[in-house]
Design a protein that fits this description.
CATH class of chain B: Mainly Alpha
CATH superfamily of the largest domain in chain A: HUPs
CATH architecture of chain B: Up-down Bundle
CATH architecture of the largest domain in chain A: 3-Layer(aba) Sandwich
Number of domains of chain B: 1
Number of domains of chain A: 2
Distance between the termini of chain B: 57 Å
CATH class of the largest domain in chain A: Alpha Beta
Order of helices and strands of chain A: HHEHEHHEHEHHEH
Oligomer: heterodimer
Largest sheet of chain B: none
Strand content of chain A: 5-15%
Radius of gyration of chain B: 23 Å
Number of strands of chain B: 1
Structural class of chain B: mainly alpha
CATH topology of the largest domain in chain A: Rossmann fold
CATH superfamily of chain B: Cytochrome c oxidase, subunit III, four-helix bundle
């Protein structure tokens, strides 16, 4: 959603639309009060629908400056429920074969929309922290030292934060399989690929299969 | 709630001072501040409009004619005033386009014209108040009329103050095609003031 007051040009455009809309309302009202009111309702509904549907201009691709040394490889791993998946652990183990590789595992504190609006995020953060602790312990048990942190409830914001504090050379995103993944439905992987100029690896973790084994 | 197995940024001892502020939002903080301010302003105007519609529509004693007899609003004068204010938005937009292209003369001329037209609007409104023929003690309709138009007039005054600052800084050589945020934000505010006037003029004077 884009605000009509995000820039001077957008505000000016909004002013022109307002002039047109209210001119129409006044004309219709001069014919009939009911017609004027219906015009107002119709235009308001159309404006809300357009506002909700419009997509803002695609942001420029960001260059990510690595915060590591010249021969250091920094990998950002983003996962939530799938953070304990075997496929993800296997991918991290393969990546860890390269020397001087640093990992940062970020678990977004996923929350319901209602709880986000009411700032009721403590349980979500605690759950994410618990998953993260288990994962870091598992990685440590196979000899991989990784940093970890609980991220913002919005995975894109969590990635954005980590890009600035960690400066990775590569990103690994773990999701549920297609059809069961909310992140895939929201196009999180594509958005991250479009937004940053670093390689993004998508790991699909099927927890149902993992638990069954 | 951060777990660190090892120092986060080892090997970066050349950095001095506090770390760069992390910014999750993609909206510029100053623009975001203006957006939030405008959001609060919309709510303020909304409360005044609620009072207006109560007096005019919901109130059991609402007058059959608006404004109630024997009063009338100076629709034509306010219409001319509206045209002046809307034109000032065009000059504001022109001024910003000029500074983006590095045309300082056009920028300064646009800003001065915008200010003058805004000032003319405010002056006309004061004259309108003096000659309108009723006062706040003449009924609820008069209260909401002066309340809404006065609230808007106060916003025009604030907008003019911002424009004056831009003009002074502009004549001192500030702003460039790369740095014109100080013009952009007052521009957003000025257009907002114009949008609100269109709504005020249409609902109070015309409908």
């Amino acid at each position: 959603m884009e605000s009509p007051f995000r820039s001077e040009a957008a505000a000016f455009r909004f002013l022109l639309i307002t002039i047109g809309a209210f001119a129409l309302i006044v004309i219709m009202s001069s014919l009939s009060t009911v017609l004027g009111f219906l015009t107002f309702l119709g235009l308001s509904a159309a404006a809300v629908a357009m506002y909700l549907r419009q997509r803002g201009p695609a942001p420029d691709r960001e260059h990510v400056a690595s915060l590591g040394g010249p021969d250091e490889r920094r990998i950002l791993v983003v996962a939530n429920e799938t953070v304990r998946g075997e496929e993800l652990l296997s991918t991290i183990s393969t990546l860890a074969l390269t020397e001087r590789t640093q990992f940062l595992v970020v678990c977004p504190a996923l929350n319901s929309r209602l709880k986000t609006f009411t700032s009721d995020e403590d349980p979500a953060r605690e759950a994410a922290q618990a998953r993260l602790d288990v994962t870091l312990a598992r990685l440590r048990s196979v000899g991989i030292e990784a940093q970890g942190e609980v991220g913002d409830g919005d995975p894109l914001v969590a990635v954005d934060d980590a890009m600035r504090t960690f400066g990775p050379n590569e990103i690994v995103i773990s999701t549920h399989p297609p059809g069961r993944s909310n992140w895939l439905e929201r196009g999180i992987v594509e958005s991250v690929r479009a937004r940053y100029d670093v390689p993004v690896t998508h790991v699909v973790v099927d927890l149902a299969t993992d638990d069954g084994e | 709630m951060t777990t660190h197995a090892e120092p986060m940024h080892g090997g970066h001892d050349d950095h001095h001072g506090p770390p760069t502020a992390n910014q999750s939002s993609r909206v510029d903080p100053r623009t975001l501040g203006m957006l939030l301010f405008i959001g609060s302003e919309i709510m303020l105007f909304g409360s005044f409009f609620a009072a207006y519609f109560f007096v005019r529509v919901v109130n059991p004693g609402a007058p059959d004619h608006w404004p109630p007899e024997p009063y009338h609003f100076p629709v034509f004068v306010a219409g001319v005033n509206t045209a002046i204010l809307v034109t000032s938005s065009f000059t504001m937009h022109w001024a910003l386009q000029c500074i983006k292209r590095g045309e300082r003369t056009g920028f300064l001329a646009g800003m001065v014209l915008t200010f003058l037209m805004g000032f003319a609007f405010l002056l006309t409104q004061v004259i309108e108040y003096l000659n309108v023929g009723f006062n706040t003690s003449d009924g609820a309709f008069a209260s909401v009329f002066f309340g809404l138009t006065g609230l808007h007039g106060a916003h025009v005054f604030v907008g003019l103050s911002l424009l004056l600052m831009v003009i002074i800084r502009g004549f001192r050589g500030h702003y460039s095609p790369e740095h014109h945020h100080g013009v952009e934000l007052p521009g957003i505010y000025w257009h907002f003031v114009d949008v609100m006037w269109i709504v005020v003029y249409a609902t109070i004077y015309l409908l």
